[in-house]
Amino acid sequence: MKKIILFFVLLFSVLTISAQEEDVLLRLALDSVFSKVKDTEPGGSVFIQKGNQSLYSRNFGLANLKTKEKFTESTISNITSVTKTFIAYGILILQKQSKLLLDDSLVKYFPNIKNKATAGKIKIRHLLTHSSGLPVIATKTNDTIIFIDKPDFEPGSNFRYSGVDYTILCLIIEKITGEKWKTFIQKNILEPTGMISSKIVSENYNDKQRTQGYKKIQGKYTAYLTQSCNEKYTLCNSVWTSPGDLRKYVYAIKECVFLDCETTKSATQIYKPDNWRSLRTPTQGFSWTIHEENDKYTYVECSGTSAGLATQIILYPKQDIIVIWMSNNDVSYSNLLLQKLRQRAYVK
Q1: Which of 117, 150, 121 is closest to 134 using CA atoms?
Q2: H or E segment at 188?
Q3: Domain boundaries, the chain
Q4: What CA–CA distance (Å, rounded) separates 124 from 294?
Q5: pTM score, two decimals?
Q6: How many CB atoms lie within 10 A of CB 267?
Q7: 309 backbone dihedrals φ, ψ, rounded to 5°
Q8: Which fold has domain 38-343?
Q9: Could you read off the pLDDT of 111-129 as tens digits, one per residue?
Q10: SS3 of 99-150
């Protein structure tokens, strides 16, 4: 009996050592991704977790070349289109509160619209999945969207990424709640999640802690000019947050902090309309893109880029792996990070 117990103790010890060695090898592999980034150059932050175990965490480079501020857990950056996930969850919160249905048409919220035949075919779920067919550019007057007479394609039949769809979702939130969509998201998502350093503000936002975006021209980094934007325009506003707060957000999604698990999960399921006509296989959830590949792990992701600033969240639900990175150096790290994870057999 003692020999059997000793065997299992030794086996457990060997497995533990092997796992530790594997984690060290992964860290060395991931370090190589950032080996060429100098401490005096624009940088970013990366975090990888499996289950409750942190596999990798690193902040590198500078947030601002002029002030020499380092990129840290507290650096405030614009996550641009990742904001759409917050808007989508805001809509799902209102659905949970029985204040809307995803099959509601736009006519319900814009009753005075002239082209009711067009608006009547477009549902909230079409807006959530970028399948409304509305043009990328829409006319806007006094916070009211003016729809064209005919969508570019039948709602639900195709996909086209569109900020206009999410602008309309923000207006629907405001019509239902009677408050600014930013206020609603702040109270119902940011605050319950504990994102105390995060704000929803315009691209004109200027804070000494915020990061500056850069692009490399002829071997030298040049700062992107601050964009001038009408702050009343929905698309000018987005979540500004830190790497630390973004981790809290992903944890809150995973642990169903601000919304029940069943409803939260629906955001990362592919919407497959009956009238789909595109040769492109549907991959869109509610603001999330779902990658399903044969013999490979399914992963879910969302990303945003603007003026040298980039953010991406990648989730492997079955493997319980989270990848979050932010940067201000006009570089995407997704392919390299996932390549290293595949090489170490954490994902396929």
Answers
A1: 150
A2: none
A3: 38-343
A4: 31
A5: 0.90
A6: 20
A7: -100, 135
A8: Beta-lactamase (3.40.710)
A9: 888 778 888 999 999 999 9
A10: CCCCCCEHHHHCCCCCCHHHHCCCEHHHHHCCCCCCCCCCEEECCEEECCCC
